[in-house]
Specification:
This protein is α/β, with parallel strands linked by helices. It has 13 helices and ten strands. The strands form two sheets. A six-stranded mixed sheet has the order 6-7-8-3-9-10, with helices on both faces. The radius of gyration is 20 Å and the shape is globular. Bound molecules: adenosine-5'-triphosphate. InterPro entries: AAA+_ATPase, ABC_Ni/Peptide_Import, ABC_transporter-like_ATP-bd, ABC_transporter-like_CS, Oligopep_ABC_C, P-loop_NTPase.
Length: 308
C-alpha cells in the first residue's frame, strides 16, 4: 500500500532506494527477540554501487532480504523504519508497507537479487533459456517467442559465449561462473532499477570471481543500474563499490566513499576488515585484528544481547 496522498513518501530525484531506520527482529522464543537489524539507514543513487560489508551474522543478508520482503517467510518482522524505492513510473513506494501482492509484482521487475550459490537457485530440470524467459513472461506481456529473444539478448548482455547454444542447455552443463552469469541474466531480464548481489562470487574461484566483478561493473556502465553488493571481503569492496556501509551486530558503524573507507577508516572494525585481506592489510592499522578480534562469528555474543 502506498501511503495516502497527504503523506506521500518522497525521495531526492537521483535516489533509487532509501532505507531509513530499519529494524528487523526474529522471534527467538516465546518471550525473547533477536534484533538482527538495528536502525539501519543508507541510500543508493541511480547508477551507484553500495557495498554492505561485515562479518558473518552482522545482518547484511537480513537487510537485503528485508528490502525484498523475503525475511518474513523466515519468521522475521519489520519492527520499524521505511524502505523507500523509486519505481520505474516515478512513484515512490515504501516496500516495508506494501501488500504481499504488490511486492510480488515488484520483485524481478523493479528490484532483483542474486545469491551466492547458482546451483541451488537454478532449477535443474529446465533449460537456461526457459528460466530466463519465465522471468520475462511472469512480469511482462510477451509471447514465448518474444521472451526467448529477450532471454537470448540478456545472455549476450552478460557475456555468455555462444549464447544461442547455451539457451537450450541445462544448468549442470554450465561451469560455476557461467551459471552465475545465468543467475545475473535472470535477475536482469526485466531490467530492474536495482540489483542486489548477496556474496555472488564467494563460491567461485579467484579468476572467475574477478570476471564476475568485471561484468557487474560493465553492466552498470551500460545500463546505469544501481547495485547493492553484499560481501564480507574488503578486497571485493575495493573492486566494485562507489560507497561502503560497514555493518556490525545489526548496525551500520561506518559509511563513506570507497576512497575514504580505505584511505582513512575511522572505525576499528573497518580497519580489522581491511587487515583481514592480506593484499590490503598494509593499508590499515596493523594492530587492528588484535584490538578487534571480531572476524569470527560469535552467535552466543549476539544471543547475549537478546532483548526481553
Ligand atoms: N531464519 C533465521 N532465523 C533466525 N535468525 C536468523 C535467521 N536468519 C538470520 N538470522 C540471524 O540474523 C542475524 C543476521 O544474519 P545475516 O544472515 O543477515 O548475517 P550476514 O551478515 O548476512 O552473514 P552471512 O554472510 O553469514 O549470511 C544473525 O544473528 C542470524 O543468526
Amino acid at each position: 500500500m502506498i501511503l495516502s496522498k497527504s503523506a506521500k513518501p518522497e525521495l531526492p530525484e537521483d535516489v533509487i532506494l532509501s532505507v531509513e531506520d530499519l529494524e528487523v527482529s526474529f522471534a527467538a522464543g516465546t518471550r525473547a527477540q533477536l534484533r538482527a537489524v538495528r536502525g539501519v539507514s543508507f541510500s543508493i543513487a541511480r547508477g551507484e554501487t553500495v557495498a554492505l560489508v561485515g562479518e558473518s551474522g552482522s545482518g547484511k543478508s537480513v537487510t537485503a532480504m528485508t528490502i525484498m520482503r523475503l525475511t518474513e517467510y523466515d519468521g522475521a518482522a519489520i519492527t520499524g523504519g521505511r524502505v523507500l524505492m523509486r519505481l520505474k513510473d516515478g512513484k515512490v513506494a515504501d516496500l516495508a508497507k506494501l501488500s504481499e501482492k504488490r511486492v510480488e509484482a515488484l520483485r524481478g521487475a523493479e528490484i532483483s537479487i542474486v545469491f551466492q550459490d547458482p546451483m541451488s537457485s537454478l532449477n535443474p530440470v529446465f533449460t537456461v533459456g526457459d528460466q530466463i524467459a519465465e522471468a520475462v513472461i511472469h512480469h511482462q506481456d510477451k509471447t514465448p517467442e518474444q521472451a526467448r529473444q529477450i532471454a537470448l539478448n540478456t545472455l549476450k548482455l552478460v557475456r555468455v559465449p555462444d549464447a544461442e547454444r547455451r539457451l537450450d542447455q541445462y544448468p549442470h552443463q554450465l561451469s560455476g561462473g557461467m551459471r552465475q552469469r545465468v543467475m545475473i541474466a535472470i535477475a536482469l531480464a526485466c531490467r530492474p532499477s536495482l540489483m542486489i548481489l548477496d556474496e555472488p562470487t564467494t563460491a567461485l574461484d579467484v579468476t572467475i570471481q574477478a570476471q564476475i566483478l568485471d561484468l557487474v561493473r560493465a553492466l552498470q556502465r551500460e545500463i546505469g543500474m544501481s547495485v547493492l553488493f553484499i560481501t564480507h571481503d574488503m578486497g571485493v569492496v575495493a573492486e566494485v563499490a562507489d560507497r561502503v556501509c560497514v555493518m556490525l551486530k545489526g548496525e551500520i558503524v561506518e559509511e563513506g566513499s570507497v576512497y575514504d573507507i580505505f584511505a582513512k577508516p575511522k572505525h576499528a572494525y573497518t580497519r580489522a576488515l581491511i587487515s583481514a585481506v592480506p593484499r590490503l592489510g598494509s593499508m590499515a592499522d596493523k594492530d587492528a585484528p588484535e584490538k578487534f578480534p571480531l572476524l569470527v562469528f560469535e552467535p552466543e555474543r549476539l544471543l547475549a544481547e537478546v532483548t526481553e
